[in-house]
Amino acid sequence: MSDRDDVVNTGQPGDPTAEKDPHDWVTGEEPATGAQKSYLSTLAQQAGEEVPEELTKAEASMKIDELQEETGRGA
Length: 75
Known about the structure:
Elements: H1 34-47, H2 57-71
Helix pairs in contact: 1-2
């Protein structure tokens, strides 16, 4: 039994057991949501970067992770 066998997905934001690779998302190829675009815009401005307009949900999620790391705004 590994340490991860007794971990329960709480479904709460930030729960690492709830995370799923964006490449595996069923809706990952859909256009990015308004919330993703808004947050990306904020992060990109802080990072001094430009973000393409037409991102998928999965691409936006990965770019958010990247920019959070770059700006220090991530978990």
